[in-house]
Amino acid sequence: MLRCTTRCLASDIADQCIRVREASEFKQRGSIACIPCRRSKVKCDEGRPCLRCKRQHKEANCTYEDPEFIPSHMLALTQREDEAVDGRCLEAVHAPSDDTLPTSRPVRMQELQVERPIDFWIRSLSFDRPSLLREHMNSMGWPDRVLARHWEFGFSSKELMNIFVSLPPYLQQVTRRALHAVEIIMADKMEKKARAPQAKLLMESETASEHDLELERSLYRQQSFGVIKQHLHPSTGKRAHVYISDILCKIIGLHAEEALARIASRELSLITTEFNYLCYVMFGTWLYATSPGRPLKLYTRIRDLGSSGDTGCVVTRFVQQQEFDCHGRVRSMKTYMLPLDKEGLETSAEPPGSAAALFEKHMRGGKDYKTWMNDFESDMFAGETILGMQKSKQGMERLEALGRDLERMYHPFVEHAERILHREGQFNGMF
């Protein structure tokens, strides 16, 4: 073994001495066997063509490959670069998705955006980003607090906006007046409560504790129905936390990780038709305004987002329950979904003449179970979209019928809101 020169030792550059580098340099011996012999792992006489290829009459295949010699110090440099690349990729996984990669990297790698992953076993998620859709719809004149829980949940902003922006003039006027009336009444009640002296409770909190969330997970994990629980900040109505059960993930056809990721990004597609969602919003708002704390019960088709072509659906009994804090503000919304077959749907019908039966009639459009199921694909993408319904006589009749029933049901709220505005001197004939 060659030793380092005296001059290199004296200058403290022994590791760079040419003698040491040449002695330790890895010498790669190029393969001298032809390709067929090397693949067969047999000895080759190095002829061109070799004797073995001549015997097998494969002279045309007897070729040689001259490997490129790579010095050992270049191999070490390449390895260090690969380790550096791997380290930056790992940092990108744990960094915000807005970070960009260094410009010295190849263009293909610069365009790669790595998002923060969600734990595969997670079933709940907390949020802190505000809803841009809520601000946008509020600027367009739609009431904020009444519709906050719908804007805040995590459905696709574009799909939600299409429902309210596409309403025909008469139905849009009725819907706006109804929701604004409820908003005025809610604001009046909150103002009265704010003026009244209230004691600060020791255990008062705007967010659910981790212990409470873990108890919920343990309870809902054992149930045979689907559950979504949405926690809200009572003072602002913004979303704080959401839990989704495995059974509900099976109903909508998504793994919990994917469902939560879509909700977090506000990209979850609607799981029912636009017309059914509008009925759900208006009936739920009316019910919670008339009977706070009473559960909302509906029968609807839930879209299977995981099915091929997004054409599958499940008929479910949809039950939603509000939970309030100590000041009477909504702090969470619990939603249960129980799949039903034809017999289960027929035996669970709402009493005739009730508000629930009226909205069920609007949502089903007079169809029996089989027709209702078979028409889901056409209803989801055309027949029960707000714009699609305006293109047919039958669809316009359903929209107008819904508008008349909403005007009648919300009339007491409109009158009450007008009295509040008269009392405050703010009534100008419209709101």
TrEMBL record:
InterPro entries: Zn2-C6_fun-type_DNA-bd_sf, Zn2Cys6_DnaBD
Positions of the Zn(2)-C6 fungal-type domain: 33-64
Alphabetical list of SMART domains matching this protein: GAL4
GO MF entries: DNA-binding transcription factor activity, RNA polymerase II-specific; zinc ion binding
Domain of life: Eukaryota
PROSITE patterns (UniProt xref): ZN2_CY6_FUNGAL_1 (PS00463), ZN2_CY6_FUNGAL_2 (PS50048)
One Pfam match: Zn_clus
Record's protein name: Zn(2)-C6 fungal-type domain-containing protein
Source organism (scientific name): Guillardia theta (strain CCMP2712)
